[in-house]
Amino acid sequence: MLDDSDVRRVLAVMAHPDDVDFGAAGTIAGWTSRGIEVTYLIVTDGDAGGFDDSVGREEMAALRRDEQRAAAACVGVDDVRFLGYPDGRVEPTLDLRRAIARVIRQVRPDRVLMPSPERNYERIHPSHPDHRAVGAAALDAVYPDARNPYAFPELLADEGLEPWTVREAWLSGGPVVNHYVDITDDFDRKLAALKSHVSQTAHLGDALADTLRQWLSANAAAAGLPAGRLAESFQVVATV
Fold first, then answer.
1. Cis status of the peptide bond prior to 144, with omega within 30 of 0
2. Which of 113, 111, 142 is nearest to 7 (CA)?
3. Do 45 and 64 form a contact (C-beta atoms < 8 A)?
4. CA 178, 19, 88: angle at the middle one, nearest 5?
5. Which residues contact 210 (CB under 8 A, 6 or more apart)?
6. Which pLDDT belongs to residue 60?
7. What's 4-238's CATH class?
8. If DSSP states are collapsed to H, E and C, what string results for the chain?
9. For residues 10 and 166, is the Cβ–Cβ distance under 8 A?
C-alpha cells in the first residue's frame, strides 16, 4: 500500500452528495491536513434524496450540490465536480466509464476512492444500486480505461488528455476490509461535513453523532485500536 507521503493527489468518485462524507470524510480530512490534494467527482446530484415533499426535484439537486460543496470545505476540499446523472438510475455504462476516465486524466491522481462494486450482505445500506454501479465504472476507469491510450481514444485525440495510471484504489462500504484509518482526531470535521448535508441529516439531531461513534468504534475495535478510538474502513487494491 502507498504511504501517504508518496501521494500527491486523490480523486474520490461517489454516487451521491454525502456518500463521501459518510464513508471517508475523516480519512480525507487527514489527507488534506498532510498536504494531499483531493478532488470530488459526484456522479448524481442526489435529486431523489431528502424528506420534504414541498421541495421540487430540481431544487433538491441544486440544494444538495451546495451542501456537498459546504461539506467538502469542512475537510479541506475545494475542487468538487458533478456529472449530473439521474439519482437512482445509474448504470456502469461505457459513457460513465469515459466520463470518469476523463476526470482521472485531468486530475492525475495517485489514489482513487470509490464505493465498492460488491454487495455487502452484512450491512446493506452502503450497497445502494447507484453505489455499486459507480464503483464498477470507477474501477474500470482506473483499470484499464484511464491508462490505455487506445481506450476512448477521443480523450487524447480531441481533448489532449494523456493516459494516466492510478496506482491504488480504495473501496468503501464493501464486504471486504483490509485497511483501517484512525480518524479520532478528525471526527469533529467528519461530523461537521455530514451536518452540512442539512436536507439529509438534520432530522437525526444528536443521534447522528451517536450513530457515527458506534460505527466508527466498531471499526476501531476490528482494527485492534485502543478503546475510545474511531476508524473508517476500506479495501485497498493495488492497481499497478
1. yes
2. 111
3. yes
4. 115
5. none
6. 86
7. alpha beta
8. CCCHHHCCEEEEEECCCCHHHHHHHHHHHHHHHCCCEEEEEEEECCCCCCCCCCCCHHHHHHHHHHHHHHHHHHCCCCEEEEEEECCCCCCCCHHHHHHHHHHHHHHCCCEEEEECCCCCCCCCHHHCHHHHHHHHHHHHHHHHHCCCCCCCCHHHHCCCCCCCCCCEEEEECCCCCCEEEECHHHHHHHHHHHHCCHHHHHHHCCHHHHHHHHHHHHHHHHCCCCCCCCEEEEEEEECC
9. no
Q: With contact defined as beta carbons under 8 Å apart, do 22 and 172 qualify?
A: no
Whether the CB-CB separation of 215 and 232 falls below 8 Å is answered with: no
Residue 10: strand pairing partners: 38, 111
The residues facing 236 across adjacent strands are: 170
The C-alpha cell of 175 is what? 464486504
pLDDT at 56: 63
Cell numbers for 80: 468538487
How high is the pLDDT of residue 59?
85
pLDDT of residue 43: 98
Instruction: Scan for cell 439519482, then name that residue.
Output: 87
- Alpha-carbon span 102 to 90, nearest angstrom: 18
Profile the chain (240 residues) by mean pLDDT over runs of 10 residues: 97 98 98 98 87 73 96 98 96 98 98 98 92 98 98 97 98 98 98 96 94 97 98 98
Q: What is the CA radius of gyration of the chain?
A: 17
